[in-house]
Amino acid sequence: MERYRDPLVVYWRPGCPFCVKLRLGLRFTRLRYTEVNIWRDPDAASFVRLVADGNETVPTVTVAGHPLVNPSLAELRRAIRTHAPDLLDRPR
């Protein structure tokens, strides 16, 4: 169902303070990622509901296809080291 094939995808929505915190933290990293506003993309909203027990819990992030629901930046970094370590070496 997930159509975004980038190794790191952040699903978010406007007004979400947890999204703001994670997205701001990501901007200070050298990681390359795609952001998807679930209010503008119904398929993305469906994907988030699928991996978040029917809820539109954001941020939801996929790391090489592995979903994380509302991860901290530290949890996200651990997932990257596990599932997509090559992202850590890529220039932005």
TrEMBL record:
Pfam families: Glutaredoxin (PF00462). Coiled coil: none annotated. SUPFAM superfamilies: Thioredoxin-like. Residues 9-66 form the Glutaredoxin domain. InterPro entries: Glutaredoxin, Grx-like_ET, Thioredoxin-like_sf. This is Glutaredoxin domain-containing protein. It comes from Streptomyces hintoniae.
